[in-house]
Each structure stands twice: as structure tokens, then as C-alpha cells.
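Review this fold:
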Amino acid sequence: MKGIAIVAILLAVIASPAVNASPADSTHAVNPDTIITVDSTNLRFSPSTITIEEGDAVRFFWDGQILPHNAVDDNETFDSGDTKTDEDYRFVFVQGLNGTFEYYCEPHRSLGMVGQIIVNPAPAVMENNTTEEPVIEVEDEDDSFMPFLSFHTMSIAIMIAAIIRTKED
């Protein structure tokens, strides 16, 4: 009888719903950073031109370069700082910061190491100005033979009864 009780408990655990660790609404997931590296053989940024939206971030990333580099915007909107052979500089184009941003590597600008970031305005978010209350949908449990008890509740009750009966025998 103990074997039956253990099997019943295992079946209840297996039949229980799993917890989902992913976000409930993945449509609002944050965009990944756009990474700009260095093509050291041609002294160019790669890619040299990108298009993003407000709220997106750009990462200037290079590692182990022989020559040091940096990334400086013509209008001083962003500046990765002093030239480095290893760089990991991130800049976020916040809401309202859009347009075309020309940038360059200070020591290699005259050699054509320039780039362009085009930042489009973020899509307009439509506000709901109505005073209507949101509709909350309730799951229909009419399919159950006992609508006030769920399958899992009934399974647990049966297992407890089986365990109690096993202890009485």
C-alpha cells in the first residue's frame, strides 16, 4: 500500500503545473545593444553605419587591438574617452535624443575611421483616455465534474485519503 501512495504522490507532482520563469509579456523586452567594433586591417568601424531607435544602446567594443582607438561624436553627444587598445563603452540614446550622429576615432579620423549612427524617434505610444474599466476574463471551469474543485485539489484529496487508509491498515 505504501507503494501505491508513493506512486500517487509522484503522479500528483508530475501533473502539477510548472512555473514559468519567463516574463509574462515578452513584447516589451529590451532591445539588445548594437555593437560596433574595429576593423583593424582597414582602420574602420564595423559596421560603419547603423540605424536604431530612441531608447536603444550602442556598445563600442574592441579587444586586443595593436593601435589604440576611441569613438567621439562630432557634437560631443558621446565620447568613449582616451584611446585604448581594449574598449567596452556603452551609450544609450534616451527618449528625445534622435537624429544623425557622426562619430570618429581621434587618431585615425584623417585615415577615414568614421561612422554614423541614425537614431529614429521611438514609435508613438497611444494612450487610452477612456474611463472604462478593463475587462478581466475568468477561466471557465464548467468542464469539471465539480466546478468548485480543481483537478489538482481533487488529486491531493484522494492522495491524502489513500495515505490515511494505508496507515489504518
